[in-house]
Protein 1
Amino acid sequence: MPDLQDSPFLRACRQEPVPHTPVWFMRQAGRSLPEYRELRGTGSILDAIHTPDLATEITLQPVRRHGVDAAVLFSDIVVPIQAVGFGVDVVPGTGPVVEEPFAGAGDLERLRPLEPEQDIPYVLETVRNLVDVLEVPLLGFAGAPFTVASYLIEGRPSRTYAKTKAMMLGEPALWHDLIDRLADLALGFVRAQVEAGASAIQLFDSWAGALTPEQYEAHVLPASRKVFDGLADLGVPRVHFGVGTGELLGLFADAGADVVGVDWRVPIDAGWERIGLDKGIQGNLDPAACLAPWPAVEHEVRGVLNRIAGRPGHIFNLGHGVLPETDPTVLTRIVELVHERTAA
């Protein structure tokens, strides 16, 4: 197994000089790749995650095709919830769906502590498989407490998060108990990935942008901080990402991450000022830009890089996940362009 501490991705996480700006894409392993669709066929994504050889191959596919600087574990944010028996599935075309949504204090007992070797051996086997063969760092991940709570309470993806906010504001003691348990689950999940060999982790608080800064600071930040603080002793880079979080970026940085992801709605240089220049930054090409003709894609990529202006600590990524209809050759060209444009 090669020593990856000198890799461009990990160097950028530490804000050290790099031979080129590292690139990876959220949802780089998935429906945009014909080889993925052929390999997966039909069936639940959770079935594939439960099959280590399959999950290993799916994780490797975009690394081979695109030449990205990091692999991201093929998994899902609901895996630890399912593993402890809460009752959740990922429905194609919909997303996470909960059989019996979280509704009150009696449901807390459905969220027992995660025992990784017993509950998620398939994830650990996948991680160990990958670190044996990868020549780039493996990024593990978990869902942040707020985002996972929103699925459990709403029962499915939501545009308003009305039930979630009502519980958060109207039953603060219950809310605290819920996201504290979810923080423990997320922490157990990512610690196990790192201990199995992952080189870094990302906490996805995808839907935190639905909150005001005051709501986030009072009701969510402490749980996210608990996850990041619980990883500090492992010494791996910690990345924090959310969508629509332009007003929360300073608070995201305060949660304890080393790198903060920025979506496409905020100019990346302005986002870095909000985060603080002592942190790394990740982003932030609009995923929809990848559907445009190549000259337009190239213009947008160069725009992101021009705003960075060569400052160490940038990891190039999209502002959210790869859209399923994206031509994968465009992603490969983006990697090549970023590498060429930023070569030392």
Note: Residues 8-342 form a domain with the TIM Barrel fold (CATH 3.20.20.210).
Protein 2
Amino acid sequence: MKIEVNKIATLTGHRDPIYALDKGIAEQYVFSGSGDKVIAQWNLKTFQSEKIASFPAVIYSICHIPKKQLLLVGTSDGNVHVLNLENKEKIKILKNHTAQVFNIRHSLETNCIYTAGGDGNFAICSLDTFDLINIRNLCNEKVRNIDFNYKTSEIAVASGDCNIRIFDIITLQEKKVFVGHQLSSNVVQFSPDGKFLLSGGRDGYLNIWQVSDYEMIKSIPAHEWAIYDIAYSPNSNLFATASRDKTLKIWDSKTFELLKVINKDNYDGHKNSVNKLIWSTYNNYLISSGDDRAIMIWEINPV
């Protein structure tokens, strides 16, 4: 497969590194959260932004729940702020962590919110009442990332002790624990067909696991520094990785072949760590954000 990369825009306005992205209130919007403690929403059509809210601490994660018109915001002090997007009012603060909230996910199937903290805790709350349902201290390191596989009813959790843990999505029974990376396991991403688990680590490796038994089928020295995020394209043919080495890389999701390296020299890419990715259905745009305080919009097309 051959692809062509075009940079569409660079969006600026945040005053500090951008650690969090999520899809916005409609297809052409995206939310961002930054070290400047501000949540903004960006229009991918006009490239204009709107400040949504500010918070008392650095923002590390956001989770938009469209059906509830809620935005969950995880901050450096361990809190998760619940924001009503209709009136932009903060309606609740979840205090289940004592350090950075690195990832927030929700599931309408289980009606739960899942959070990963720098305190080593993995917490589950009710989406209706926001009450704590379960909290587990998984390790003495940071819990970094969460993903769901609805095909197998499983949750994967990546953490700084190098391990990846697999839980049953209904019972929360721990089904498997395995070493994901030689250094911290930073990100986990199930393939859309549910057959593979992709993981990225502080060791710069992209590892591919077969979901049936979680045996590694491929280990790729993908980046020179830590991998922070993985995102599939809307049609699932491609996926992208983001790294502290200042690059984005585009991969063939069937062969796991590297197709493009997007960096400062070749495509006027990020000049610092790339922290977060969203692959939008709007114009098939890939959106990246980083320590350079920039959000970049990329058009990725087959040739």
Note: The chain has a mean pLDDT of 97.
Protein 3
Amino acid sequence: MDNLPRLKIKYREEVCPYLKEKFKYNSVMQIPAITKIKLNMGVGEAIKDSKLLDAAIEELTLISGQKPAVSKAKKSVSNFKLRKGMKIGAHVTLRNSIMYEFLDRLIEISIPRIRDFQGMPVESFDGRGNYNFGIKEQTVFTEIKFDNVIRANGLNITIATTAKTDEEAYELLKSIGFPFKKSKTEDK
């Protein structure tokens, strides 16, 4: 048990009792948990230059600690010179310990490095307890060496939870330490 990620220990010891008390759950199985984190990096320019996709795959591997899968175009779009089956991005799904390690690094190190950071938007929940947000540049991650970056790529991150409502998911992420924007009512 001593090699568990720090965030997982915090979830078990602090977050679970808090959520059980707040939402009056009868069973510990009702307490929402994070099931997976999906990272997605679209590289539309890879149509013209395949080196950009290779660089994106390498960067996503450094960020996540896992080798990403390559995303291919599902259909042809003539305006973008895109053919069905062309490689246009990379994605990776994190679970278990790797997921908690990534989330810890994201909350503690990477998100505070975002320029002019005011907090993550509260409106980005999907209605089913999952949270989506984007990062404009992959350089906020300390694993990426700024000198090796060919092009600044955006990164979409989806945090999937077992929460039934957005309110439960918000409380779960907030109690773990996710930095949300302060609402008007919290400022007073």
Note: The chain has a mean pLDDT of 80.
Protein 4
Amino acid sequence: MVSHSLYRELKPDIQQYKVDVEARFSVQLHVVEGAWDNPAKMRATIKELYDKEKISGVILVGAMPMHRFFMHEHANPNPLYYEDFDLEFVDKNNDGVDDAYNGKPQLKVWVANIRACEKASEDDIPGLRRFFTKTHDYYTGKAVPELRTLLFTTGDYPVVGDEFRRNGGTRFSAPGDITMLEGKACTLKAVRKAFKKHSYTLTYVGVHSDETGHGMEDEDLLSQEIADMTTGSLITINHGCFAGNWAKNDDEKSGLNCAMSWVFGKHMGQAVIAQVRSGGVGFDNLIYARLRAGDYLGKAYLPCKQAHEIEASPGDHTPGDIVSGILFIGNPFLELKPVKTKISLVINNAVYGDFSNNAVTNVTQLLADWVYDNTLTVDVPHDDFGDPANGIVKQLKVDYTFDDKEKSKTVNDGETLKISKGWFSK
């Protein structure tokens, strides 16, 4: 979806993007021109396209109208308005900004924002041209990212690195091509060195952030420095408050937006999943699982966003703060394929619960995703297991194959299961 005026400027670029994407993915792109001057008209068009054309996603090109929703002290850009057009949004305090909705979030489409400018009414045409040049160079093989993964997280988030491994974020690079800067190792100098040496296909930013930059252990990595990088990251999962909030940036005139710097800078970056309010990006395991299954990034983002909306709907910060604030900026048609390595540990079957009464739940896929470097460590119980037998001490039973030998282990609640080469402990 693109305005008439912007399409006149960018028609060759957008048409080339359409050709490149359709040559690589089994999708059809439809260019829809319009003159939408408010979010309601945009939403009506998206709903009509969904009903008549059965679209699965929407790419908003340029400074398109974005619905504002009051969440955590600010009126923030709200993509949920377009992703679920059946929700009824309401303005309870009559201040001109919606702060609640009626209904249960059931996302219909993913929405990607190819928006190089923070200002609501301006298009950064040079920035957009540079972006589409990057996508064309990527699709034609002129620009090839290194198959490397980077995570940086401070001591304020001590479990992020472990969760990233368990969630499958390291599956897209060989073990020797994974860089984990954790705790005191997460310094500005270390991050600069990492990007000076390499480009990355996937980067997870697990630090305190805002719309101007990321907080390292010592100094901040600022948005302008990100934009000026020559290497960059093809896909960035940007965990941190307000990092993707271009509207907040514009309101406070604080300079280049942080999350958009990962996409529209001089480097090869093309996509970021970020937060527009206080909070971060979680449920990234759903993204990695769908990418491993062969989905493109936009389609892989949708279940992550759906999970966030379900979690946020009761209100997790302040009254009325019921929208997750997760959004997608950049090119949705990117894919990451898992790197094939020798797998010694295979989880064949895993069940948790009260075996004597057959009150159990199957957690096989969950544990399979948690295997890292042929090692599995699980504290039992675990929140992700649920509670199939309330009030009963339960067990976790895992049937697995290690070096082609079939084995089985069982542990009780309150114990730790660890499976590695020849080692098991409680």
Note: Residues 345-425 form one domain.
